[in-house]
């Protein structure tokens, strides 16, 4: 996949996250996380920034939606 496509896909993920109901965030995270982590190997800084935005979104969401906290802890083990 071209880096421009990766960047566009990550941007769509961020938009989708913003529109997702809190109760569904955990299932979205399980689908999104493997792809987001694989994007960290990209040399392109803008892609890494998008992944960091996704991580930040879930970190902040876990403060307000406690069931996400355990998933975020698993994320920290892999990043």
Model description:
The chain is mainly alpha-helical and 79 residues long. Helix content is 81%, strand content 0%. The chain has helices at 3-19, 25-39, 45-64, 67-78. Helix 2 packs antiparallel against helix 3.
What structural keywords apply?
79 residues; mainly alpha; 4 helices
**How far is the first residue's CA from the last residue's CA?**
22 Å
**The biggest beta sheet, please?**
none
What's the SSE pattern? HHHH
Strand content is under 5%
Global shape: globular
Query: Unreliable segments (pLDDT under 50, ≥5 consecutive)?
Result: none
Number of strands: 0
Work out the helicity level: over 70%
Structural class: mainly alpha
- Put simply, the count of helices is 4
**Alpha carbon gyration radius:** 12 Å
Estimate the mean pLDDT confidence.
Answer: 81
């Amino acid at each position: 996949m071209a880096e421009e496509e990766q960047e566009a896909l990550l941007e769509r993920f961020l938009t989708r996250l913003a529109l997702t109901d809190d109760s569904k965030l955990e299932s979205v995270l399980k689908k999104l996380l493997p792809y987001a982590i694989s994007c960290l190997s990209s040399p392109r800084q803008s892609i890494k920034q998008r992944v960091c935005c996704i991580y930040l979104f879930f970190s902040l969401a876990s403060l307000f939606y406690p069931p996400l906290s355990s998933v975020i802890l698993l994320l920290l083990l892999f990043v």
